[in-house]
UniProtKB/TrEMBL annotation:
Pfam families named among the record's database cross-references: 3HCDH, 3HCDH_N
Domain of life: Bacteria
Protein name (record): 3-hydroxybutyryl-CoA dehydrogenase
Source organism per UniProt: Iodidimonas nitroreducens
Family named by the database record: Belongs to the 3-hydroxyacyl-CoA dehydrogenase family.
PANTHER family linked to this entry: 3-HYDROXYACYL-COA DEHYDROGENASE FAMILY PROTEIN (PTHR48075), 3-HYDROXYBUTYRYL-COA DEHYDROGENASE (PTHR48075:SF5)
Assigned keywords, A-Z: NAD, Oxidoreductase
Annotated 3-hydroxyacyl-CoA dehydrogenase NAD binding domain residues: 4-179
Length: 289
């Protein structure tokens, strides 16, 4: 895995590029919007600096990691990659289009991984010319800090691909949890219905944003309230995951809360745009309800 491509330079893509470059691999980071990739490089630099200041890595390790990352808006620049990790928006049509384009460019032996939070690995794999070389590699947010990576095999994923993926993830210093290819796998199958329920709790007026988050922080000992966490994940991503659960498991208990739908329709999709259940334009985030 000398050269690793990362497609999508949003909050997950920049985190993945960060840990992969620190792990000693060359990284080609791409986004449909070149300025997102440029922005991502700035964020990676800032986050590496924080690690240097905390003496978690040395200045030399930081400099080498930064030097290993190149950015592009052209998937043809992935042609020499040994592995490409897709971390674009959580929309199946976007991901399928990326894989189709990538397959025209990649060398035949290159592996493909997706960071999807919920979409069927088997279905995504079948849109490529190499389902046996395709795997789910679900990093957690923020990637440089969170220990876990869920590894998910599609029905066609070969034993060899699975072994290589596990080794790659372990070499990055992450712990692996193996999940079967069911909608939203393990973490989000459990986490997202809780977040959706928290939004219903707000929608029905059981509590305010502040009360709900405080209740779960102090009452259930969660490090962050569910609405704050939803903003952190991105409400667009939360909604997409609930839709995959709702459609994939055909159970009304996964119905996305109408308030979540409304916030996404309004473009209030969380921290990445400055407004979600909290307004981030003030020094301290202020609840919006
Ligand atoms: N946010 C989380 O907490 C989290 C955690 C684990 C996994 N994920 C998954 O990671 C993926 C990315 O999520 P994110 O939170 O980084 O989203 P994001 O919105 O921060 O970033 C998505 C990026 O994809 C880019 N993009 C869209 N279409 C593209 C295309 N055709 N080609 C290249 N780039 C394209 C966008 O410009 C954007 O920069 C999703 O599949 C999501 O489900 C998210």
């Amino acid at each position: 895995m000398r050269i690793v491509g990362v497609v999508g330079a949003g909050q997950m893509g920049n985190g993945i590029a960060h840990v992969v470059a620190l792990g000693g691999h060359e990284v080609v980071l791409s986004d449909i919007a070149k300025e997102r990739a440029e922005q991502a490089l700035g964020i990676i630099r800032h986050n590496l600096e924080r690690q240097v200041n905390r003496e978690l890595i040395t200045q030399d390790e930081m400099d080498k990691a930064i030097a290993r990352i190149s950015i592009t808006d052209n998937l043809a620049h992935m042609k020499d990659a040994d592995l490409v990790i897709e971390a674009a928006s959580e929309k199946e049509n976007i991901k399928v289009a990326i894989f189709k384009e990538l397959c025209e460019t990649l060398k035949p032996e290159a592996l493909l991984a997706t960071n999807t939070s919920s979409i069927s690995i088997t279905r995504l794999a079948s849109s490529t010319d190499r389902p046996e070389k395709f795997i789910g590699m679900h990093f957690m947010n923020p990637v440089p800090i969170m220990k876990l990576v869920e590894v998910i095999r599609g029905i066609a994923t070969s034993e060899e691909t699975y072994k290589i993926a596990r080794e790659f993830v372990s070499d990055l210093g992450k712990d692996v949890a193996i999940a079967e290819d069911f909608p939203a796998f393990i973490v989000n199958r459990i986490l997202l219905p809780m977040i959706n329920e928290a939004i219903y709790t707000l929608y029905e007026g059981v509590g305010s944003v502040e009360a709900i988050d405080k209740a779960m922080r102090l009452g259930a000992n969660h490090p962050m309230g569910p609405l704050q966490l939803a903003d952190f994940i991105g409400l667009d991503t939360c909604l997409s995951i609930m839709q995959v659960l709702y459609e994939g498991l055909a159970d009304t208990k996964y119905r996305p809360c109408p308030l979540l739908v409304k916030y996404v329709e309004a473009g209030w999709i969380g921290r990445k745009v400055g407004r979600g259940f909290y307004d981030y334009s003030t020094e301290e985030p202020t609840p919006t309800r």
